[in-house]
Specification:
CATH architecture of the largest domain: 2-Layer Sandwich
Number of helices: 7
CATH class of the largest domain: Alpha Beta
CATH topology of the largest domain: D-amino Acid Aminotransferase, Chain A, domain 1
Shape: globular
Distance between the termini: 27 Å
Helix content: 25-40%
Number of strands: 14
Strand content: 25-35%
Largest sheet: 7 strands, antiparallel
Number of domains: 2
Structural class: alpha+beta
Order of helices and strands: EEEEEHEEEEHEEHHEEEHHH
Radius of gyration: 18 Å
Oligomer: single chain
C-alpha cells in the first residue's frame, strides 16, 4: 500500500493518505505531551511501544465484537486503519478517582468508584478539552442520542474486558480515554472505536505496589517512561524477556545507523 500525503498531525500521531480512499496510515510519534501541550518532550521508542500495545488491545477487542478502526500493523511505527469521521468527544472512563477529578471535586486520590464513571470532554486543544455534559453533546449536535447510547454500551464492555485483561497480568486499570468515529459499513453509517489504547491514554498501576506504568510518569516526573511502557508490553506478552533486541533497542540501532550515514 502506497503512503500518500499527510492528512493530519496530532500530539502523538500522524495520519497519511493511501491509494485506498477508505484506508489511511497511522504513524506513532515519540513525542510526549501533558497539561494540554504545556509540557513537551521527545522520548525515543515511545511510539514503537504504543503501536504494539494498541494493536494488541484493539485486536483483542475485535475478537469480542468491538468494531474498531484497526486493519493491521504495518511495521514498528505504523498501522493501516479505516478512515473515520471522528466524533469530537473524548470519553473518559474512570474506575478509580485520581488526576483531574480529585482536584475538581475534592475526592480523595485512589478512591475506588462503585460503578465505572463516564465523563465527556470536547475534543478541542485550543479550549483545553473542556468537560461537557451529555446535554451539551445533544444541544450542539456533536453526536446523536442513538450514537451516545451505543457508545456507552461499547464503553462498558470495553472497560469490563480491559479490567480483566490487565488484572490477569497484575495491573489495575484506573482510568482511560476513548475516541469513536463514524464509518460506512455495508452501506450503513456505524460508530466504531478509533484512536489508540495505550499507556499514553490509560492510567495503569501495578496491582501490588501501585507503581505508575503510564504517562503519569512523564506528567509527574516519576522517571523514564520507556521501562514502564516496556513492562506493560512484556506483561501483555507482546515483548519477551528472552528477546535479544527489544523493539525499543531496534529503534535506537536504526537511529544510530541513520546518524552514521
Amino acid at each position: 500500500m502506497k503512503k500518500g500525503k499527510k492528512l493530519y498531525e496530532g500530539k502523538a500521531k500522524i495520519i497519511y493518505a493511501t491509494n485506498d480512499k477508505n484506508l489511511v496510515i497511522q504513524y506513532f510519534k515519540d513525542d510526549a505531551t501533558a497539561f494540554n501541550n504545556q509540557k513537551k518532550s521527545t522520548i525515543e521508542g515511545k511510539g514503537v511501544l504504543n503501536n504494539r500495545i494498541s494493536e494488541h488491545i484493539l485486536s483483542n477487542l475485535s475478537q469480542i465484537g468491538i468494531k474498531n478502526h484497526l486493519v493491521k500493523r504495518l511495521n514498528m511505527r505504523e498501522q493501516i486503519i479505516k478512515l473515520v469521521e471522528i466524533i469530537p468527544i473524548e470519553f473518559i472512563v474512570r474506575n478509580v478517582a485520581t488526576g483531574s477529578i480529585t482536584k475538581r471535586l475534592g475526592i480523595e486520590d485512589g478512591t475506588v468508584l462503585k460503578e465505572p464513571l463516564i465523563e465527556y470532554c470536547l475534543k478541542d486543544d485550543k479550549l483545553g478539552d473542556p468537560l461537557i455534559s451529555e446535554e451539551h453533546i445533544l444541544a450542539f449536535d456533536w453526536a446523536s442520542k442513538t450514537e451516545i447510547d451505543k457508545v456507552k454500551k461499547m464503553i462498558l464492555r470495553i472497560n469490563d474486558f480491559m479490567i480483566g485483561m490487565f488484572r490477569g497480568v497484575g495491573i489495575k486499570l484506573i482510568d482511560f480515554k476513548l475516541e469513536f468515529g463514524r464509518v460506512k459499513i455495508d452501506g450503513k453509517n456505524e460508530v466504531i472505536l478509533a484512536d489508540e489504547i495505550s499507556p499514553d491514554t490509560c492510567r495503569l498501576w501495578d496491582s501490588i505496589t501501585e507503581k505508575k506504568l503510564d504517562k503519569d510518569r512523564f506528567r509527574k516526573d516519576l522517571g523514564d517512561l520507556i521501562p514502564a511502557y516496556t513492562e506493560v508490553a512484556k506483561r501483555l506478552g507482546i515483548l519477551h524477556e528472552q528477546s535479544n533486541v527489544s523493539a525499543v533497542n531496534v529503534t535506537k540501532l536504526s537511529s544510530v545507523k541513520r546518524k552514521k550515514k
